[in-house]
Amino acid sequence: MLKKVVRRCIVTDMPVTFSFPTTVLFGPGTVKELPHRLTSMGATKPLIVTDKGLIGTPAFRAIEALSGGKWPVFSGVTPNPVEDDVERGAEAYRKGGCDSVVAVGGGSALDVGKVIRIRVAWPDVPLRGFNPPAKAARVPLAPCVTIPTTAGTGSEIGRSSVIVFDGKKAVVFHPSLLAKLAILDPELTVGLPPKLTAATGADALTHCIESYTSPEFHPMCDGIALEGVRLIADALPRAVRDGGDVDARGKMQVAAMMGGVAFQKDLGAAHSLSHPLSSICGLHHGTANALTLPVVMRFNAERKPGLYARVGAAMGISDATDRAAIDAVSGLLRDVGLPEGLRAHGVKESQFDALAEQAFADPCHRTNPVPVTRDDLRRLYQQAM
Predict the structure, then answer these.
(1) 217 and 345: one domain?
(2) Residues 293 and 176 in one domain
(3) Do 90 and 153 belong together in one domain?
(4) What's this model's pTM, rounded to 2 decimal places?
(5) Fewer beta carbons under 10 A from the terminal one: N or C of the chain?
(6) CA of 190: how far to CAs of 40, 97, 129, 137, 167, in Å?
(7) Which residues span the domain enclosing 27?
(8) 104 DSSP β-pair partners
(9) How many separate domains does the chain show?
(10) CATH number of the domain that 87 lies in?
(11) How many Å separate Cα 261 from the centre of its chain?
């Protein structure tokens, strides 16, 4: 008698949660809906959270006009935000009698805006390693609307924020950090200079590539990441060449958001390398990613052949190989004016040990497609010089 054989096909041995809950409003001119959307949330006096560089720009003036000058503004967010930025923002929220947050700007402003609500709700809970108290369910965070004026971080739809504590970047994570609404209005990004357009675009590209190649099981994120790569390959060069190309600006905003959605799957070694380059050397996060991504891709492809074939296909390469995909990524970064080499950005070899130490402590490399050691990370910095 033949025995019946039952095969189990297990794609993951751990439970996986798929969640894309943030409401996103996209399109030219959509920022004009902000007052109505706030009213529908029961919010009447939001704190506008931004940075000094955005004050006086057309993007900020558009927000200010909608407020009628009645909404308090906190513009003390620094480029690599520190814990004190959050503390000062929370104090501005209390003094202003605010009931919500509108975070406007790049990833730093969005990250701080989201976390300010934690400090307001739970003033005595440490932000580093944030763990909400048992009473959290009875103290919901204030509503938050995120309005990106760059296309890179994806922070507008993320459930985490990156804050510097004692000179080291750390992630503040909790599902309650999600914004209630993200408004993607490409007209707010047309004034972004070419260099910053390129750097933030490189950030979005790195998110998409690293999330796709992360070994974690999340097929929805894989599809989103690959489509993000396709959009960036098409739109980023156009947005850099012509800042007024609203179609390219819009596609970059959507791609950046998709990268932010995709990296709930996790990231990889390029992000572990880039975080210390910001906290120790002061590099813009997107620029740091552009400088480290190609060397990490080469490292990974040597140890796991075929890893980047679908990335190359998403970039329009027929019969894509790892080498072709890596060359296409490097070429795209050069084409948008991001030169290779850490040395050109002031990084010194004498900093390698400190950089490697922080990079190894960073959790992102734990979901790199192949394992890395501290020595591997140090060698990758050397290769990126």
Answers:
(1) yes
(2) no
(3) yes
(4) 0.89
(5) N
(6) 29, 33, 37, 40, 33
(7) 23-189
(8) 147
(9) 2
(10) 3.40.50.1970
(11) 9
